[in-house]
Amino acid sequence: MREDSSVSRRRYVQLAGGVGVLALAGCTEDEDPDEIDTGNGADDADDTGDSDSEGDLEIVHWWTAGGEEQALNALLDGFEEAYPEHSVENNPAPGGAGAAIDAAIQTRVIDQDPPSTFQIWPGEAVRPYLEADALESIDDVWEDEDAYVDGVIDAAAPDGDLVVAPINIHRLNNLFYNVDVVEDAGIDPTDAENPEDLLDLLEAADDAGYVGLAQQTQEPWGILQFWEMVFLGQYGADTYEQFLAGDAESLESEIADSLELVERISEFHNEDAGTVAWDEANADVITGDAAFHHNGDWAAGEYQGADGFEYGENWEYIPFPGTEGIYTMVMDGFVYPANNPTPEATEAFVSYCTTADAQERFNPHKGSIPPRTDVETDGFPPFLQDQMADFEASDEQTVTISHGSGLEPARADQVQEAFAVFTDNWDVDETTQELIGIF
Ligand code: GAL
């Protein structure tokens, strides 16, 4: 294996803050970013070229919920078919929206013992790792940059070099529902034109004896993403951008109003919201105990995997009220960490993720659409055909705090903390001031 000089270049290592903000000293200004070891270069004197000696490709991710696990397995099967010389050590760090992955990965990066590859959101979430000089460029192994939809390449290359291989695009601004339940409650969800209208739907479902909104409040990202959708639905993408750009103070009344609506809607949550994971809350829609569920379309991956629960017949969705024409994008990808334990296998895997074959296998199970435009999607389920049409027709694509693309991680963590407190005390004024104080 090549000697990795990035380790000796690091001057200090520091983990700061309760949630662990990675802050490693980067390389000096005259140093080039590391390139992936191709196995052929002049600096490869230590490279035996023998992939057997490398060990298995260790992959760390958080996809343990039903449809997500199936999607990952489909991807890994494809990889092992394409590269039979490599095998995989699947090492999940369970926790929705990466709730547990950062702590696990950051410690290992600091100990110079990273896994072969790990899951990350393209965009702002990557920055601390870049600043720490902890990722290598994957420019050389990327298949067909031109085949990607707009915006993806920028997110995959926050500093100009491609460092994440994006595998999917989720939509966050969905409102899913159980068709029988809403019919029984006499509700037409398409009546909801803005987030306030949602309250009427939930009241009607509650009156008919159902849980209005299946929700998890155990981890703060659940209500954070819900508030993001309410705010977006009430005030639009420009105002949301204004908030992300740090102008929270002049949005005080908007923030307070949106939080108040979120608080009022919390009356219609399932009673066990504070102790369940997102997929457990979502299961209430499948069983017919709950009418609605807001989530990214990874929730649809669960419906697709449920027996006898058919899109259009048993479940449906609308864009979150007030956000029609907007596609809030959530992407996932895999990286090539520096100090890599399996250079050849990692290079092969990251490269495979950028292929049409990988994206064709992964996305139907995951409930997401492929970031490449040349993937064969005829066999994708009807729901994803509709999402692809909505993506094409969307006027705006927005980012999100709760899934890593909207704010740099140190700030995003502070926002998450404010929402952790909010889901405990539901104090609108205090949370408004907390959010303003972050910027
Ligand atoms: C998101 C991730 C999705 C899905 C979701 C629920 O952050 O991008 O792929 O896993 O969390 O855990």
TrEMBL record:
Residues 25-54 are annotated as: Disordered. This is Carbohydrate ABC transporter substrate-binding protein. SUPFAM superfamilies: Periplasmic binding protein-like II. It holds the Pfam family SBP_bac_1. It comes from the Archaea. Residues 28-54 have a biased composition (Acidic residues).
